[in-house]
Design a protein that fits this description.
Blueprint lengths: L2 H8 L1 H13 L8 H13 L3 E6 L3 E6 L7 E7 L26 H16 L9 E6 L8 H7 L6 E14 L2 E4 L2 E4 L2 E9 L3 E2 L9 H12 L1 H5 L7 E10 L5 E2 L2 E10 L2 H21 L3 E10 L2 E3 L1 H13 L3 E4 L10 H4 L4 E9 L20 H20 L1
Parallel strand pairs: 3-4, 3-5, 5-16, 6-15
Antiparallel strand pairs: 1-2, 2-4, 6-16, 7-14, 8-12, 8-13, 9-11, 10-12
Helix pairs in contact: 1-11, 2-4, 4-11, 6-8, 9-11
Length: 390
């Protein structure tokens, strides 16, 4: 067994207790006060330099801050989801309507484990290691951008992140080089017309009819404006209009998302959506107001960093698997826009019904044996870099 995995497995009971404590006390985006205090206190006790209230509720901790040279950054996200947990476990969420149903409790526990292991090996590490305990991954323009704006990425050479995935068996690591996760933008379209009686539609300007056409027409962005081999999706997920069964409303509001796996397409999407929304509204005698909010960019893994991540996992005795790109998004992409790095999916499934559900499901859960694998992977990445610098 590798040194890193042996040290991580020795911490397994503590890792599990940390994860379960966080799981019982979920905090959604920008509310991670207790979680941030726990992470900050943990790192301070181990002698790291700690910056609290980074990006409002986050923590940035640095091991060996006095060392010269560029830093290596390791990141965990901390926020939970506004979803009520349905797992029947002793450590289930104690907060109604909030739950760690995407694995961020595990990410935080694994990175804290890496802090503990690496603090005991600090004399072997000739560079700073920066640990990001990041808030607000689950909301647009969240914690990653805020940490970057505050300068916490300055002086970092490379950055790594892990996401636990119960659809991958424990002991495996899912990797993909290049564009791996989609951009995520938010679309809000408000159509304004003239209300009236449902029996006399000719005297009104019906925004609901225009909205129906707009929803269908937006699909042509993918079907007719893009190369069929270019992944993208435009989905309208909310429509709000009207208050009575026999009254044509004067306004209709639609909200949705646009996603793609290409920076070039990401630049074009707002223009295409606006052409369709405004053009169809005009054809119906309506006015369209488009609020197109940029979210996260495309997540692009650097080939060199993929090689280091895969090599580190093999040293632990784990196995790699090639994963396909996903139209899900991750604000880790904001770091990768600025410097090389890798975001990988760590196997956390044991084949049982208890780990059968995937992200954001009310019964999402993980095989807790994955925690030691994640801690060990973070540690091995640092040790490999240290070996290359010696």
């Amino acid at each position: 067994m590798s040194e890193a995995l042996s040290l991580a497995r020795a911490l397994e009971p503590e890792l599990i207790e940390l994860r379960r404590d966080l799981h019982r006390h979920p905090e959604v985006a920008w509310e991670e006060v207790r979680t941030g205090c726990l992470a900050g206190d943990f790192c301070e006790k181990l002698g790291l330099r700690v910056t609290r209230q980074a990006a409002k509720t986050g923590v940035v901790a640095t091991l060996n801050p006095e060392q010269k040279g560029p830093a290596l950054a390791l990141r965990a996200d901390m926020d939970a989801l506004p979803i009520h947990e349905e797992n029947d476990v002793a450590y289930r969420s104690t907060r109604d309507g909030k739950g760690h149903l995407c694995g961020h409790d595990a990410h935080t526990a694994m990175l804290l484990g890496a802090v503990k292991v690496l603090s005991g090996l600090r004399s072997r590490i000739p560079f700073p290691v920066r640990f990001f305990f990041q808030p607000a991954e689950e909301v647009p323009n969240g914690g990653a951008e805020a940490l970057i704006r505050e300068g916490h990425l300055d002086g970092v050479e490379e950055v790594f992140g892990i996401h636990v995935n119960p659809q991958i068996p424990t002991g495996m690591l899912g990797l993909h080089s290049g564009a791996t996760m989609a951009s995520m933008d938010r679309i809000a379209i408000e159509l304004s017309g003239v209300g009236g009686h449902a029996a006399m539609p000719h005297l009104a300007r019906d925004p609901i009819v225009a909205a129906a056409e707009t929803v269908m027409a937006l699909q042509t962005v993918v079907a007719r404006r893009l190369d069929p081999l270019e992944p993208a999706v435009v989905s309208i997920c909310q429509i709000e209009a009207g208050s009575a069964f026999n009254v044509i409303p004067s306004t209709c509001r639609m909200v949705g998302t646009a996603r793609c796996l290409s920076a070039r397409v990401h630049e074009q999407l707002p223009e295409w959506v606006e052409e369709i929304a405004v053009g169809l509204a005009k054809a119906h005698g309506l006015h369209a107001k488009l609020d197109y909010m940029r979210g996260t960019p495309v997540l692009v893994n650097a080939a060199s960093s993929i090689g280091r991540m895969g090599g580190a996992f093999r040293k632990l005795g784990g196995r790699e698997t090639e994963i396909s790109p996903t139209m899900g998004s991750e604000d880790f992409a904001c770091y990768l826009e600025r410097l090389p790095g890798c975001f990988a999916f760590l196997g956390a499934g044991d084949g049982s019904p208890d780990t059968a559900q995937c992200f954001h499901h009310p019964r999402y859960n993980i095989d807790e044996k994955a925690l030691a694998w994640g801690t060990a992977l973070f540690v091995q990445l640092v040790l490999d870099r240290a070996a290359g610098r010696s």
